Amino acid sequence: MVVPGTILPSDDEVLCKPRDVQAASLSALQRAMSAMKEVKRAVNVVNEAKSCAFAAFRSISPALPANRVWAAANGGDDLLLLQYLASVPHDPAEQRPLLEYTNRQGQTPLIIACTMGHLRCLQVLLLYGANAYAQDAQGHTGLHHACIKGHYDLVQVLLTVHDPALRNREGMTAMDVCRRNIDGHRRVINSAKCLEIIEQRCKLFEGWIYESVNNLASSALRLRSLQSWVRRYGVVFSIGSPDYVEVAFFDVVDGLRTLTPRSTILFRIHDPVMLNTQRKMFNPKPFNFTITGSRKMPGVGYLGRPDLFELAAFNELEYERWTTFMCLSVVSFLITSVSMTQKDSV
What is the secondary structure of 65-120 as a DSSP string? Predict the structure, then answer.
């Protein structure tokens, strides 16, 4: 409703003039351009920050090439690994940080190469003096990891520079790791190959033997004289100790011994061996002898208190072989074995 006396604008006055529209458009365009300049300025600032950060990374990275060596070993790139190591002066102070760099699990380039099964990388690292005895956070060496993964080709190389008797935090040697894999049905074929290689390195003596074992009567009455004789195939292994050897007793199935032992004794070589000890009430064996040792528990370490273990040879010839070895030869074998291990570790 129009109030009387009000003067209404004309049509020309209602519509904006062209110059006013042009001025308004120009003003809006200027504001937009100003905003774009601000955006460009912000983008430039961000890009400059990125460039500075990248330049800083590039400047730091060559000063810390150890992670590159580790990454090359992890990825199996032996040529790149060789290139990195060859570019460093032949100086232990310069090479040590490269070869001893570790990830969060404490794994060195050599350990990760063994874990991943990179044979050529392992050979390059050994060529440049990488520590084959380095252990990760779990106490595993490269040999432990190679056995866990069943990399038997790496095991063969490592045994030229590594003592297989070194134990991890669980008290397990590389041989124990192989046996656990087989008992747990993990990588059985490859683990068996690893185990065979290690056994050949550690074996001191082998032959048929009777082992005296508990039965229901002897366990219930706690009488050693009621124990039964069980036919086994015995193998004596060096465990890297000047005082102990491992005597492993294997079952024999279809003429072949099992991969893992039925029982294991840690025999102290300086303790006397008692010959011709008749301890059985039933089925005594004429060619028997008794040793002192500790029962090695399955899986870890050698737990168990010292005890007497009665054994018997099949015949007089085997009796002479076993008793001669246990009384005399084991000491000389062990001295030779330990000397070879110390020579390899130098």
Answer: THHHHHHHHHHT-HHHHHHHHHTS-S-HHHHHHHHT---TT---HHHHHHHHT-HH
Read off the pLDDT of residues 113-150 as tens digits, 9 standing for 90 and up: 999 999 999 999 999 999 999 999 999 999 999 999 99
Task: Scan for tokens 């102070």, then name that residue.
Answer: 93
Report whether CATH 1.10.10.1590 matches the domain 202-341.
no
202 touches 333 (CB < 8 A): no
What kind of fold does domain 68-199 have according to CATH?
A: 1.25.40
Q: Where in the chain is the domain with CATH 1.25.40.20?
A: 68-199
Which distant-in-sequence residues (6+ apart) come within 8 Å of 244 by Cβ? Answer: 266, 267, 268, 269, 302
pLDDT digits over 195-240, tens only?
Answer: 999 999 999 999 999 999 988 988 888 888 888 899 999 999 999 8
Token readout for 305 is 């208190």
Residue 90 corresponds to which amino acid? Answer: H
